[in-house]
Amino acid sequence: MITALDAIRLAKEIGGKNGLNCIAELDETAAVESGKCSENAHFPPLSGMPILVKDNIDVKGFHTTAGSLALADNMALNDAPIIQNLRRNGAVIIGKSNMTEFANYVSTKMPGGYSSRGGQVIHAVKSGLDPLGSSTGSAVAVAAGIVPMAVGTDTSHSITACAMGNGICGLKPPAGVLSQEGIIPISKTFDSAGAMAQNVSDTLKLYSAMRDEPLPEITQTPAGKLRISVNIANADMNPQERRKYLDGVIETLRNNGVVISEVNQPPTPELPSIMKREFGTGLEAYLIKSGAKLKTLKQIVEYYEAHPDTMMKYGCDLLRGALYDSSQKAYVVEEYQKAMKSRANEMQRITKEISDYDAVLITGPTYANHLCGLPTITVAGGTLDTNGVRQAVMLYGTDEFRLYAAALAVEQLLNSSLTQRQIPIC
Fold first, then answer.
1. Phi/psi at 281 (5° precision)
2. Looking at residue 199, what DSSP letter applies?
3. Can you give the pTM of this predicted structure?
4. Is the distance from CB of 33 to CB of 4 less than 8 angstroms?
5. What is the pLDDT along the chain (426 residues), one digit of tens a residue?
6. Positive or negative, the Cα torsion across 88, 93, 97, 102?
7. In this structure, are strands 259-263 and 192-197 parallel, antiparallel, or unpaired?
């Protein structure tokens, strides 16, 4: 197991600004806490495990900035509830990870992993590749072997996209299972903290420790009893290499007795509409209780506009759009209510279509899963793409325990020697 001392050394050697730039802050005294955990006769589940936490989650004694210099003065006075749970389960928080600024809710032009506070996070495997998502520093740190596990947040693929892009496992739990308190938000409806690790078992172990109550024992579903529906929405948008890989995955599942069907669940407009209308209210509710000097979205936008050299490299159209919406009270309420009603209808339709299946395999861009608040997990296989990144698949489902049991089975199949021969990678 990587010790806290090892993780801190690796974080400084390869995670800093001259390396992968995935580290926002480090606590070099964490190694002492790790030693105390190892002396604990009760051996909690994560005893001594070094963990990095995304920089939009409160960790006592660290800044919580969401990657923005506008919140550089925001020192967390208390741990968020999920961090309290991690500590109770023996985890050692060694630091904070860089992220896409405000969880990618600043500008439509901002690249994944960039922030005014941290700069650009570098892909774990190959410089120049898009590190994706907004939990970027957490994903890169795990993929690079700096830490065995890391915490992120996800509103719409902020964990799962960068996990898949860096070849690791990433989990967004069902909406509402984990506390959102002490986390800089985008949307109360869709936000969730989540877990990242090299494999499904370790990811579930971290997630279990984040919960108020641990996960029940998850037993892998036998392949012959597994039912998976393939979401074909936007599958044609993948490059040829990705399409060949996914075709090989589906063939392998079918050859091992998995029942395969198809469903078409593309993205619909409710999610971005709801995000836009919840962002300002949620952000201000967090800021009013924080130590940050700036307390309103208006003040945040004004700060960006007053510091164009440092804050406006990619603009701030999303922040401005949310501010404009917040000033149109009557319009916002009406449009928000329409979007929420439409979401309820979509949730009923989508969940009905897939309720008989253990998991749904995503083959193209969609956020139907996040619209419905469904658990979503990225499973990395044993094959590499032409850039040297582990190939991965993304699964979602209506029942989290069935989904995790299915993910364990899929992971085993993808990493078997038979599967590696069957799945083409070029």
1. -65, -45
2. S
3. 0.94
4. yes
5. 789 999 999 999 999 999 999 999 999 888 776 655 555 556 799 999 999 999 999 999 999 999 999 999 999 999 999 999 999 999 999 999 999 999 999 999 999 999 999 999 999 999 999 999 999 999 999 999 999 999 999 999 999 999 999 999 999 999 999 999 999 999 999 999 999 999 999 999 999 999 999 999 999 999 999 999 999 999 999 999 999 999 999 999 999 999 999 999 999 999 999 999 999 999 999 999 999 999 999 999 999 999 999 999 999 999 999 998 766 666 678 889 999 999 999 999 999 999 999 999 999 999 999 999 999 999 998 899 999 999 999 999 999 999 999 999 999 999 984 444 444 333
6. positive
7. unpaired
Alpha helices in 126-234 (DSSP H): 136-143, 160-165, 200-210
Task: Name residue 153's beta-bridge partners.
Answer: 193
Here the tokens at position 99 are: 């992220």
Which amino acid type is present at position 4? A
User: In this structure, what are the phi and psi dihedrals at residue 254, rounded to the nearest 5 degrees?
Assistant: -65, -40
Sign of torsion over alpha carbons 282, 283, 288, 291: positive
Handedness of CA 198, 199, 202, 207 (dihedral sign): positive
Question: Could you give the 3-state DSSP secondary structure of residue 96?
Answer: strand
DSSP string, 210-261: HSSSPPPPP-PPPGGG-EEEEE-TTGGGS-HHHHHHHHHHHHHHHHTT-EEE
DSSP assignment letter at 102: G
- Say which amino acid occupies 117: R
Catalytic residues: 54, 134, 158
Q: Do the strands 114-115 and 227-231 form a parallel or antiparallel pair, or are they unpaired?
A: unpaired
CA distance 255 to 252: 5
CA 226 to chain centroid, in Å, comes to 26
